[in-house]
């Protein structure tokens, strides 16, 4: 067990965020995204997104994106500041399919059953 630097609550070493207050507990958060195998440019490749939180003294918070080959080598790397990372997130979020209105699907059926008419 370790202690959250923000609220001093108990945490497990495997936690990324404090279960009590939600504070980031790791210096670096990493997610891997496999390429689209249906496309030649995506086959066998992977995107690694790393968020450096700036928790340690002297760290600069930033996001780092890298493209990894089938052989496990980084082919290209770029670091983005918080503003550009947020801009990228907005760009990618805009590509999501729109949410269905609450009047359709399961939620709509439940609402109509509870409030007929």
Give descriptors for this structure.
single chain, alpha+beta, 4-stranded antiparallel sheet, 2 helices, extended
Helix-strand blueprint:
Elements: E1 2-3, E2 10-11, E3 28-34, E4 46-52, E5 62-68, E6 74-80, H1 82-93, H2 105-114
Antiparallel strand pairs: 1-2, 3-4, 4-5, 5-6
Structure description:
It is extended, with a radius of gyration of 20 Å. It has one domain. It is 19% helix and 27% strand. It is an alpha+beta fold and 117 residues long. The mean pLDDT is 83. Strands 3-4-5-6 form a 4-stranded antiparallel beta sheet. The protein is built from 2 helices and 6 strands; from the N terminus they run E-E-E-E-E-E-H-H. The termini are far apart.
Main sheet? Answer: 4 strands, antiparallel
Our count of domains comes out at 1
Taking all Cα atoms into account, the compactness measure Rg is: 20 Å
Q: What number is the mean pLDDT?
A: 83
Binned, the helix content reads 10-25%
Order of helices and strands: EEEEEEHH
State which percent range the strand residues make up: 25-35%
Strand order of the largest sheet: 3-4-5-6
Oligomeric description of these chains? single chain
| Termini Cα gap | 54 Å
Q: Low-confidence segments, ≥5 residues, pLDDT <50?
A: none
What would the principal axes of the Cα set say about the shape? extended
């Amino acid at each position: 067990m370790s202690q959250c630097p923000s609220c001093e609550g108990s945490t497990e070493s495997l936690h990324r965020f404090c279960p009590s207050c939600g504070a980031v507990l790791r210096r670096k958060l990493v997610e891997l995204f496999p390429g689209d195998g249906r496309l030649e440019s995506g086959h066998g490749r992977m995107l690694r997104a790393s968020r450096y939180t700036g928790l340690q003294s002297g760290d600069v918070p930033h996001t780092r994106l890298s493209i990894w080959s089938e052989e496990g080598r980084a082919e290209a790397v770029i670091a983005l500041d918080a503003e550009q990372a947020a801009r990228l997130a907005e760009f990618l979020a805009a590509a999501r399919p729109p949410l269905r209105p609450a009047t359709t699907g399961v939620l709509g059926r439940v609402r109509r059953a509870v409030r007929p008419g």
